[in-house]
Amino acid sequence: MHLLIPAAGSGKRMGSDRNKLLLPLHGRPILAWTLLSAAAADQITWIGIISQPVDQPAFQVLLQDLSLSKPVVLVDGGSTRQESVERGLQALPADAHHVLIHDGARCLATPDLLNRCATSLLSDGAALIAAIPVKDTIKVVNAEGWIDHTPDRSQLWAAQTPQGFTVAQLKACHERARIQGWEVTDDAALLERCQLPVKIVPGEETNLKVTTPSDLAIAAWILQTRFQE
Ligand code: C5P
After folding, report:
1. Superfamily name with CATH number, domain 2-228
2. 109 and 204 Cβ atoms separated by less than 8 Å
3. Over the stretch 92-116, which tens digit does the pLDDT of each residue have?
4. HEC string of 52-78?
5. Whose CA is nearest to atom 19 of ligand 1?
6. Would you call 6 helix, strand, or coil by DSSP?
7. Which tens digit of pLDDT belongs to each residue from 152-180?
8. Residue nearest to atom 1 of ligand 1 (CA)
9. pLDDT tens digits for range 40-82
10. I need a labelling partner for 111 at 20 to 30 A (CA). Which of 2, 9, 122, 222 fits?
11. How many Cα atoms sit within 13 Å of 165 on the Cβ side?
12. How far is ligand 1, taken at its centre, from the CA of residue 111, in Å?
């Protein structure tokens, strides 16, 4: 199974002037934890890290430190996550028929979750995303700050990554999005726009996306707890 890791973002919401994935977390850069999990997932055989050219020297140093036994390729990213993934898809080897997309910022996803997504994708070929039921009541709010409505919570799931697809289908959806000018924040949304089915694989509560300084503190605590077990 080929894995693409979008890692070409910035540190804006983290309040950092560099790529947040290079910030230290429990003794290693954030991205190192994502890579260690991918390395430990035996279903993953190839890793593409989508990155900004400016970050690539630091990513190379990180890769030297980790010395992973799987092939790892650095791919130039774009100005949005969507564009970065599209570039990653173009860089996949010709023999890649299925792909998992997993955000570098979701550094706490376990090898088990990556393996479960890969196995599910290979067994029936259906597009999938890891997700968990939402715990909060969600409000839809208008531009003036007033509640528009409250969706039925029993139908709401929080999307995570990994998200898995056949390469041909995801490439076709990205191409259509570019032509139509669709802008989305995850890959499943492109399949939804194309009216293609996407199934849910149970995600993990600890699979948070490290976005703000408080996420970093929570992630550090989770890793510390895992190491004590
Ligand atoms: O900014 P956010 O955390 O939502 O980004 C999700 C993931 O997409 C991150 O791992 C980030 O590095 C990646 N990304 C990217 N290219 C961009 C913007 C974000 O690969 N232009």
Report:
1. Spore Coat Polysaccharide Biosynthesis Protein SpsA; Chain A (3.90.550.10)
2. yes
3. 999 999 999 999 999 999 999 999 9
4. CHHHHHHHHHHHHHHCCCCCEEEEECC
5. 9
6. strand
7. 999 999 999 999 999 999 999 999 999 99
8. 9
9. 999 999 999 999 999 999 999 999 999 999 999 999 999 999 9
10. 9
11. 25
12. 21
Give the model confidence (pLDDT) of 209-225 as tens digits.
999 999 999 999 999 99
Domain boundaries, the chain: 2-228
Tell how far the Cα of 47 is from the centroid of ligand 1, in angstroms.
Answer: 16
Query: Which string of b and e fits 107-144 if b means at least 16 CB within 10 Å?
Result: bbbebebbbbbbebbeeeeebbbbbeeeeeeeeeeeee
Q: What is the distance between the alpha carbons of residues 185 and 152, in angstroms, rounded to a whole number?
A: 22
Atom of ligand 1 at shortest range from CA of 105: 10
Atom of ligand 1 nearest to the CA of 6: 20
Q: Which atom of ligand 1 is nearest to the CA of 79?
A: 21
CA of 134 to the centre of ligand 1 (A): 22
Is 9 touching ligand 1 by the criterion CB < 6 Å? yes
| 121 Cβ contact partners less than 8 Å away, ≥ 6 residues apart | 1, 98, 100, 127, 128, 164, 165
Joined together, the tokens standing for residue 24 give 């230290």
Burial class (CB in 10 A: 0-12, 13-18, 19+), 67: exposed
Q: For tokens 């509640």, what's the residue?
A: 147
* Locus of tokens 């993990």: 204
Give yes or no for residue 50 CB within 6 A of ligand 1.
Answer: yes
